[in-house]
Structures are given as structure tokens and as C-alpha cells.
Amino acid sequence: MRSNDLRAVLDFVETAWALAGDCAFTSETLDSLNELIPCDELSYCELDRLDRRTIEYFDSDGGEGDDEELFWRIVEDHPLCRHQQAYADFSATRLSDVVSQRSLVNSRVYGEWFRPAGIAAELEAGIARSRARTRNFVLSRARGDFSTRDRAVLDLVRPHLARIHEAARLRAAAARVSEPDELERLTSREAEIIELVAAGLTNGAIAERLWVSPGTVKKHLDNIYARLGVANRAAAVARTRPGP
After folding, report:
1. What are the beta bridge partners of residue 47?
2. How far apart are CA 74 and CA 191, in angstroms?
3. Residue 76, Cβ density class (10 Å: 0-12 exposed, 13-18 middle, ≥19 buried)
4. Does residue 45 contact residue 54 with C-beta atoms inside 8 Å?
5. Which of 36, 106, 119, 126 could cross-link to 114 by cystine, CB 3.0-4.6 Å?
6. Which of 159, 155, 149 is nearest to 5 (CA)?
7. What is the set of domains in the chain, with CATH numbers?
8. Pick from 195, 167, 168, 199: which is nearest to 183 by CA?
9. Closest by alpha carbon to 30, among 128, 139, 127?
10. Sequence-distant (≥ 6) Cβ neighbours of residue 117 within 8 angstroms
11. Which residues are within 8 A (CB) of 162 and not within 5 positions of it... i.e. 6 or more apart?
12. Predicted TM-score (pTM) of this structure
């Protein structure tokens, strides 16, 4: 990476912090990132993978998302989404890093998603460690692939974007006058585990999903019970799920 790329990264990070307020990211944040890494479309999305719902979405064109029903139908076959879920790898990754062009063109997800949208290349990075609740920046191009420079630049700004989001979340939590969200008492890994418990997964299934031992899952659950002041799984889920 060249010195002017590093200066551009620093300028973007400064701009992103300046733009952050009640919302961590704005359309201006995306515009600034688009200047740093040129692309045809850039979006930010936060997804609840367990309940299969979009929590937040906006893109550089001011859109609020494509066909959500179609997205959830193809998401398990989307190569980058599948890569994140399989390996918990949220680093900047190109579509071409995880699937060959031939395999992509011959896939169902290409015919239903990429080709209709005119997407030839995609670069994606996540700023959350949870596979149950993801927060991703997605950059798309209609022609040509993203370069290794583009991938390296996105990886450099990724931790800064994560800190901006966390700072905005803490500001929002401090501004609330009601009882704090019980999930905020938990670490990110504990929150991920209780989300999987709420989805009905056993300790063994959670361990397999997170690539840890069942004993590690049990230890996390014991810590969760202690933090929340409860005695069992059902009570922990009840404390952390939103009320009616």
C-alpha cells in the first residue's frame, strides 16, 4: 500500500468520526468510503440471522434495500455470507476470494441475485464478531474486480468503523432513561450464545456452530446466569428478549 493510500485512510477515519452522531453511519459516511474505494454501489446492513430480519439497511443511493424476501431466500447460498458464517471471518473479503468465476456463474444465486442486479464483483467486511447479528459494509461493481489494495484499505478502516459503531451505541445507552438492555451486560460472545439458546440450539449444537467445546459453552452460560441473576436457560432468554 502506498503512502497516499495511508493518508487517504486517515482522512476517511477522521471524516467518519466527525459524521457520527446518534447514528453511527450516515449516507455521507458511505459517500466518503466510496471515494476511498471506488465502487458502483455501497451499502451498510445489520441483520438478525436467527430471526431472519433486517435491522438496518441503507445504501449510497439512499435506498432502503432490495427485495428482502429474495435476499433471505438466497442468503445461505451467497458465497460471502456463507464464508462469514462458516469461518467467523469478517475481514475484508472479495467474492473472487471465495468462489471461482465459473462456479459463481453456474450457481443459482448468480441467476437470482447477482446477474439481475448487474453485479460482477463484490467486496464485503463485517464490524461485528457475532454470526447471529451481523453488521456488514458491502461494496459492489458492475465491471472489474476489486484489487488487493481495495481489500487492504477496507481492512484498515474496519476496526475504526467498529469503534465508531460501539461509541454510538454507548451514547444511545447513556441517553436512555429506562432500564438498560440486558444484552448490554454481556460480552459479545455471551450475547451470541444467548441468541443461539433463544433460537432453540442445544449446548452441543452451539459448540459446533461456534467451533468451541460444549464445556466452553456451559462455562459461558454459567457466566451469563451470574451476570443476569438467573438460574437457567429459560430465565436468561426471558431477560434478554425484548418485551411485547
Report:
1. 54, 134
2. 26
3. exposed
4. yes
5. 119
6. 149
7. 3-175 (3.30.450.40), 182-240 (1.10.10.10)
8. 195
9. 139
10. 66, 140
11. 127, 128
12. 0.71
* Cα angle 94-96-100, degrees, rounded to a multiple of 5: 155
Per-residue pLDDT of the chain (244 residues; tens, 9 = 90+): 789 999 999 999 999 999 988 789 988 999 999 999 999 999 999 999 988 899 999 888 766 555 788 899 999 999 999 999 999 999 999 999 999 999 999 999 999 999 999 999 999 999 998 889 999 999 999 999 999 999 999 999 999 999 999 988 877 766 654 445 666 778 888 888 988 898 888 999 899 888 888 999 999 999 999 888 888 888 888 888 754 4
Looking up cell 434478554 gives 240
